Amino acid sequence: MQAPLIRRIVIVGGGTAGWMTAAALSAKLGSGVAITLIESEAIGTVGVGEATVPHIRHFNAALGIDEADFLSRTNATFKLGIEFRDWGRIGDSYIHPFGAYGAPIDGVDFHQHWVRLHKAGRAAPFEAFSLPIRAARADRFAHPDPDPHSLLSTYSYAYQFDAGLYGRYLRAFAEARGVMRQEGRVVDVALRDDGFVESVRLDDGRTVGGDLFVDCSGFRGLLIEQALHAGYDEWTRWLPCDRAIAMPCATTGPISPYTRATALSAGWAWRIPLQHRVGNGHVYSSGFIDDDAALTALLAGLDGPPIAEPNRLRFTTGRRRRQWIGNTVAIGLSAGFLEPLESTSIHLIQLAIGRLLDLLPQGDWDPRDAAEFDRLMAREYDRVRDFLILHYHATERDDSPFWNHCRTMDVPDSLATQLALFRERGVVAPYADGMFLEPSWLAVYLGQRVVPHRVDPRVLTTGEGEAAALLAAMASRYGAAADGLPGHAAALGLAA
Predict the structure, then answer these.
(1) Domain count, the chain
(2) Contacts with 491 (C-beta within 8 Å, 6 or more apart), sequence order
(3) Edge-to-edge strand list for the sheet holding 336-337
(4) What stretches of 48-106 adopt beta strand conformation (E)?
(5) Are 45 and 14 in contact, with CB atoms under 8 Å apart?
(6) Which is the catalytic residue, given 29, 79, 257, 319?
(7) Secondary structure class of 34 (helix, strand, coil)
């Protein structure tokens, strides 16, 4: 009987990516595979990926993690969406929700009817037809109802948590399932004649060998780039922000069940409310603002006094041209970086782990496995990239050189096609795969004043008065349902 191809897995790097990988592999592969994770306390982690999308719930559930325990151990809060302030024009606010808008009327998509009535001045704001937005605005939350006939089934939710605590939580989970952690810093990578990684050498002289290596070393890409030279496709011409400052502050008001992204003069600021503090940061372009001014802008927007020194980061948006080479797979920041505007970092980690498990070689190393992994991950990065670019490009702001650049820049053909379809007749081009579905695109399009020139002619089969009455009743139902939900603090088991 042939021996298993992969008996030893070495994960280089800890943090969220490393420990998510270790937890998932140890849970799914069992005791027949020895998993070692190498990390150094001397090397910090980025640790600002505190907001997520609903997919994280499926990751935790697949590991058998109890939600109440997870919430308590990571100081997590619930998340119904992301509020975007000042993106279309200064003073604008919209929420990208985890849920649907309205319901079709006479077989025609809801947004087509809304656009028709909006143009006639007879429609409530688009967000009036989203239950998660109505709940988020009122700081309310309840778990969705599994009954598909219930209005409370029309949304999903994610979490906002302390990324450092989440990493420690998963470390305990992984170590309980046999994962061995080794303290140390990787200083050399030994390659075999066929280009596969044979082992890594630590700063104290120890050598760690393996059959499969997972590079979770962050921006440095110790294995995938420094040793294997994967190459990097840079996207700063479309996503010009290249620096960030993170700084937590004290909580001074209600804990909101949503993340906030506020557009500033040369970037944007995040606000992520946790149980014990508020996470804040400023993502900006060094070509349009200097570091001191960026810090000043961040401090001006804090809810309360800072509770830590600023953590400064530099990055280059883009992705590796290859994320799986030989017996090495890059996961997390070593694979690429897309700024946290839509909370996609942890989702991309989760997706890569799932793809790795799906394509894990069994009988032999087949280059088609690596090629398929690269194809799937490249497609996902590209689609997230386009969605992020949309936020910057679909703006009417002309109050700073940064926004003038974003508004007038050329965009990828894939996004230009999407925009043209929607501007002309309200079509949201569907993806066979991809995390952002029609409601997400509608949130940004309409939230940033991209209104179609024409609507689906089938809406005209419903009288304008009849459609207006249907929408008014629909908005009323969403409002009443949101008003009936408990407060967010109560849903978390906290004192209001």
Answers:
(1) 1
(2) 78, 140, 141, 142, 143
(3) 232-234, 318-320, 336-337
(4) 77-79, 81-85, 93-97
(5) yes
(6) 79
(7) strand
Residue 165 resides in a domain:
yes
- Asked whether residue 372 is assigned to any structural domain, the reply reads yes
- Residues 44 and 246: their CA atoms lie apart, in Å, by 14
Question: What is the DSSP secondary-structure string of 300-314?
Answer: HT-SS-B-S--EEEE
Q: What is the pLDDT, as a whole number, of residue 3?
A: 55
Query: How far is Cα 467 from Cα 460, in angstroms, rounded to an integer?
Result: 10
On whether residue 397 sits in a domain, the answer given is no
pTM over 0.90: yes
Specify burial of residue 495 (Cβ count, 10 A radius: 0-12, 13-18, 19+).
Answer: exposed
Residue labelled with tokens 């009954």: 147
Q: How many CB atoms lie within 10 A of CB 488?
A: 26
The residue whose two tokens read 């999407």 is 418
- The first and second tokens of residue 369, run together, are 């496995």
Tell me how crowded residue 465 is: count the other CB atoms within 10 A of its CB. Answer: 9
* 233-257 per-position pLDDT tens digit: 999 999 999 999 999 999 988 999 9
The SS3 call for residue 380 is: helix
3-class SS at 232? strand
Q: Give the C-alpha separation, 458 to 438, whole Å.
A: 19
Alpha-carbon span 451 to 119, nearest angstrom: 9
Q: Which two tokens stand for residue 155?
A: 């949304």
What residue has token string 């990239």? 385
> What is the secondary structure of 152-195 as a DSSP string?
GGSB--EEE--HHHHHHHHHHHHHHTTPEEEE--EEEEEE-TTS
Domain span holding position 184: 8-76+161-234+316-383
What are the pLDDT digits (tens) for 348-385?
999 999 999 999 998 889 999 999 999 999 999 999 99
Give the Cα separation of 451 and 431 in Å (integer).
21
Is residue 119 annotated as a catalytic residue, yes or no? no
CA–CA gap between residue 45 and residue 17 (Å, rounded) = 10
Q: Which amino acid is at 289?
A: I
Angstrom distance (rounded) from CA 190 to CA 319: 24
Closest CA to 304 of 351, 247, 249: 249
Asked if residue 439 is part of any domain, the answer here is no
Place of tokens 């398929």: 372
DSSP alpha helix (H) spans, 331-366: 345-359
- Per-residue model confidence as pLDDT tens digits over 52-64: 999 999 999 999 9
CATH number of the domain bearing residue 183? 3.50.50.60
* Count of other CB atoms within 10 angstroms of residue 381: 23
Beta bridge partners of 84: 94, 261
Angstrom distance (rounded) from CA 245 to CA 3:
49
6 in Cβ contact with 33 (< 8 Å): yes
Helix (H) or strand (E) holding 21: helix 15-29
Question: How many Cβ atoms are within 10 Å of 394's Cβ, its own excluded?
Answer: 22
